[in-house]
Amino acid sequence: MTRAGLGLEAGALRRLSGVVARLALLPSITEAGALAVATYYLLSLPWLWGLLLGAAMAAVSPAVVIPCLFALQERGYGTKKGIPTLVVAAASVDDIFAVSIFGIMINVIFSEGNLTMKIIEGPLGIIIGLAFGIVWGVILYFFPKPEDRFCVSLRTWLLLAGGLVCVLGSEAVGYNGAGPLGATVAGFVAAAGWRRQGWPQTSPVSQSFKTIWAFFQPALFGLIGAEINLFELEGDRVGLAIACLAIALTCRILVSVVIAFGAGFNVKEKTFLAFAWLPKATVQAALGPVALDIVRSMVQPDSDQLLWARTVLEVAVLAILLTAPIGSALIMLLGPRLLPLDAQRPV
């Protein structure tokens, strides 16, 4: 998420801010609603549980999308119109929104604690993440000074440390959505400040994070694979679950194309934007088992809730298996074919 913040272009973000907001929220709401309807009729999942599943599935996987978009950006595809920045920014906001709604639905279903406070936690987490990210980014603008011979190393490790504190600290106090947002905003604010000091868009700190990511990316995807349990899948329901996912993703793609109208994109670029939202992985791996863990921890688990929680996990597993590899492949294949190769490569 920090690397995502470093890669955002302030100019493109300002120009496309309205599109970012629409692409982050409307397709997610559409996908969640479509999945709730599909699972209600095809898998007999109650409405509340369908919305819970929809919130978990609506999140785009930053671990898959962001590296793919950075790879296209570094090769010069779609940079003049800020398409990589648009997708990365919208994916980050999309995840925060989806995780917040998932948390609210969990508390509605299991009625733990004060429901009003739980609903307030979503927007409050966003405010906390924004505040932390802005403050930490401004601190890194002033310290260390550019003339410090260890400036790049210090800025790299301080930015990384701030992101870790934000993510782990937000989880410790119960505001999970604040962490990723804070890490992204800190990277964005710090990079914007450094550019005012004379650093290029692809700063030395960005290059350092690219090197760090080369080591951590295999570990992250290994953890995603470790969360997938094929034995949780029941053969007679797999086909129906795939049909539900196909319906929800189709609705999301269509809405994404419609939203992109009026933003100055041609048909090819709109098509790419629509398919860039397919990959599901990290968020689904984290949220998929939550409901089942809660039900199993009960003194007397309800048999219906056990079935519904297993259904949520099954759909999450299938979403990871099908969309993560297909989605990343589509992004890398469609990018060079649908996005313009700008004459001016990123510095």
Keywords:
mainly alpha; Na+/H+ antiporter like fold; 15 helices; 77% helix
Structure description:
GO terms for molecular function: antiporter activity. Keywords: Membrane, Transmembrane, Transmembrane helix. This protein is mainly α. It has a single domain, classed as Up-down Bundle (Na+/H+ antiporter like fold). The protein has 15 helices and no strands. Helix 3 packs across helix 4 (47-58), helix 5 packs antiparallel against helix 6 (83-110) and helix 5 runs parallel beside helix 15.
Distance between the termini: 21 Å
Strand content: under 5%
The CATH topology name reads Na+/H+ antiporter like fold
CATH architecture title? Up-down Bundle
Average predicted local confidence, pLDDT: 82
Domain Cation/H+ exchanger transmembrane: 4-325
Subcellular location: Membrane
Membrane topology: Multi-pass membrane protein
Family: Belongs to the monovalent cation:proton antiporter 1 (CPA1) transporter (TC 2.A.36) family.
